[in-house]
Amino acid sequence: MTARDPAAVPPPLPRGNKGGSAFHATNDGRLSDAAPRHPRGVALQLHDFRFGFPRRPDFLGPVSLAVQPGDTWAIIGPNGAGKSTLLRLMAGLLPPKSGAIEWSGTNLSKLPPRARARAIAFLPQRSPTDFDLTVREVVLMGRFPHRSLGLFESANDHRIAEEAMRTTAVLLLADRVFSTLSGGEAQRVHLAAALAQQPKLLLLDEPTASLDLEHQLGIFELLRRIANQHAVAVVVVTHDVNLAARYCDHVLLLDDGRVAAVGSPREVITPAVLEPVYRVGLTAVPLNGGGDGDWIVPCAKPMAASA
Amino acid sequence: MCQTHGSFCMNSPNPRQFALRLALAGIGLAALLVLSPGIGTESASFGWRDAWRAYFELPIDRAELAHRPLVDWSADGVISDEEYAAFVRIARHIGFSQRFTRSLLALQVGVTLALCGATFQVLFRNPLATPYTLGIASGGSLGALVGLRWGWTGVILGVSGVAGAAFGGAIAVVTAVYFLARGSRRLSSNELLLAGVTLGLFCSAMMMFVTSVSNERETFFIVRWMMGSLDPVRSIEGAMLLPLMIPAWIVLVGSSRALNQYRLGDELAAARGVNVARLQAVCVLVCTLATAAVVAHCGPIGFVGLVVPHIVTLLFGSDCRILLPGSALLGGAFLILCDWGSQLAMRAGGWATNQQLGSATLPIGVVTAIVGVPAFLVLLRARRT
Q: From start to end of chain A, where are the E strands?
């Protein structure tokens, strides 16, 4: 096997997306062509990376970030700040414009889609709910990247799906038709399907939007537990800065495509940091005499009414 | 267990149950094909048993043949060797070169149209989508019309000029639709549908133009062709569809798991490892080629592709792994039965009115509509309540 020139510059992307052939294109000695093994150190790494749309070429970035197994990250910021776009980029659904996203040392855009899906699960903000499939079938669909042949799932797939349903407490609903579920139940089923994917990185876009208070707390509790017990890295895009502060280890604050702040919740989720980004007045209310940190409450009219 | 469907519902399909049902349906289809040499327009006096015996050159009971009309030509109550040989020859010719081939074609056409219809409904997330929605039928019809009008009746490599022109027209329209929709942004389903419907309307206008400059005889041919028919089939042409169709069937049924993911939305499907753009392109291409071949041979037979997938969904649920093969099998059986209906209806009509209508057939589209629409509406109604 001839080793290609391991130049400092990343090799040019193969033209077009030819699916299978891209698999071998990664095989240049430096990069592993196998599905990523469980990394001890860094799972997902963003190197000074940027992204733009044709009309807004410098929409997002530069962002540098290292997500480690077992970490929970929250991405917060105002509407249109690029949170969801960043999450899609981390899921490998969009190619970066410059810089690189690496999954345990492999350029994410060079991983074959199925191998990527075995490592990274992504839950979009809106998923359809009008299925006439049962909960069990929806969860079993998460096994897709693990099976390339055969129309039906194996006993092992069923076992893993059942385990995932147990984790998110939807096992009792297994034979219910998906479209009959409530919003909170449906979200937990989607989460179970993502777990059935057995990912090392779980990306969620506003998983608590349109859920009631109990289910919001429930989802975050669940994410925390998944991260701790399964050594899965979790990245959540959310508008709820208080839940983010309470359940996440790290917070990334985006403002108009730029990183405004990054750090622990105690560093980032403070009125001083958030006020200029969200352009509202904020007050910190100490919880339990300050022992549980502060609760951030908006307390004034928006400073820029036009926005 | 199963709240949305009746007792037919196959929730959590287990492979063994699925294989069993598939095998049963396959046996049913095969049984239709076995019966097919005995059923048709011509009032030839042989049944499917005689036809198969004639085909395999097995002896047929002469004493029994003597009671049949049109066998004992000399009317002496005895079947001579010549009369016996003539009977066998007719049974073989009509039974296999005509009826069996015709049913085989109906099977292929029904399977293809239903399978493509089911695929397109999933692919465009639109219950009204059929391959014809993208203008395939209109393009093909326009091509065929041009071929008919200017008399491209020659046969090249076993494909008639008209069929070739129809195929070319269908491919041209879909290519145009594809590049129109692609040029704007990603392969967005709504843009594709809009472009297809618009180009289809254009082709319809052009068909009116061609018809308006045709003489009476040509117009008659054109109108007959537009009704769709399994008539112009000879044994070679019927068999020629198969090599085109079988790879298409395999690709589409093989895509059913990816199509299931696709129903979750582009993003989730992509995150699960489905190459969404490639899935769309492959399915559209395969369906287009297969449908164009059908249109080229049989004219626009549109109804099957729209309604059969809905019937399968209503009965068995919308899991693509069941929807696609189920639609294929039901579509094939449905079109065979409708084709028999179209032949027997005229036979019955001729008998009722005491006229010689026995060798004519109803247009297949008339029968599929008469049988399919009430069945579909009843199912739709039953599901609502």
A: 44-51, 60-67, 72-76, 98-103, 106-107, 120-123, 201-205, 233-237, 250-255, 258-263, 282-286, 294-298
Residues in a beta bridge with B160: B155
* CA distances (Å), origin B340, targets B45, B131, B233: 16, 25, 15
Contacts of B369 (CB under 8 A, 6+ apart): B303
Q: Are B173 and B139 in contact (CB under 8 A)?
A: yes
Q: Pull the structure tokens for residue A15.
A: 């033209």
**Is there a contact between A122 and B268 if contact means CB atoms under 8 Å apart?**
yes
Nearest to A151 by CA among A159, A141, A136: A141
B280 touches chain A (CB under 8 A): no
- Percent of chain B exceeding pLDDT 70 equals 83
CA pair distance B219, A117, nearest whole angstrom: 57
Alpha-carbon Rg for chain B, nearest whole angstrom, is 23
Contact A66, A230 (CB under 8 A): no
The rounded distance, in Å, linking the Cα atoms of A239 and A237 is 7
Report the amino acid identity of residue A35.
A
Q: Does B1 touch chain A (CB under 8 A)?
A: yes
From B169's Cα to the closest Cα of chain A, the distance in A is 29
The interface predicted TM-score (ipTM) is 0.79
Chain A environment of B277 (Cβ under 8 Å): 17
Peptide bond into A78 cis (omega under 30): no
Q: Taking residues A8-18, report their average pLDDT.
A: 37
Taking only the tens place, the pLDDT of each residue in A55-102 is: 888 888 788 888 998 899 999 999 989 999 999 999 998 888 888 888
Does the CB of B277 have a partner CB in chain A at under 8 Å?
Answer: yes
Helix (H, G, I), strand (E, B) or coil at A124: coil
Mutation test of the interface with chain B: which of A144, A187, A195, choosing the one with the most B Cβ atoms within 10 A?
A144
**Does residue B2 belong to the interface with chain A, where contact is any CB pair within 8 Å?**
yes
**Nearest-angstrom CA–CA distance, B169 and B299:** 12
Residues of chain A neighbouring B267 (CB-CB closer than 8 A): 88, 93, 122, 124
Q: Is A142 on the interface with B (CB under 8 A)?
A: yes
Q: What is the pLDDT of residues B170-219, one digit of tens each?
A: 888 888 887 777 655 555 567 777 888 888 899 989 988 888 888 888 78
Q: Which residues of B touch A121 (CB under 8 A)?
A: 271
CA B196 to chain centre: 21
- Contact between chains at A124 and B15 (C-beta distance less than 8 A): no
pLDDT at A248: 93
Contact A113 B274 (CB under 8 A): yes
For residues A244 and A267, is the Cβ–Cβ distance under 8 A? no
**pLDDT for residue B53 is more than 70:** yes
- The pTM of the full predicted model, rounded to 2 decimals, is 0.83
Instruction: Pick the more confident residue, A188 or B191.
Output: A188
Q: How far is CA A175 from CA A96, B16, B374, in A?
A: 41, 19, 32
Helices (H), B159-275: 161-184, 189-212, 216-227, 235-254, 256-262, 266-271
Q: Is A134 on the interface with B (CB under 8 A)?
A: yes
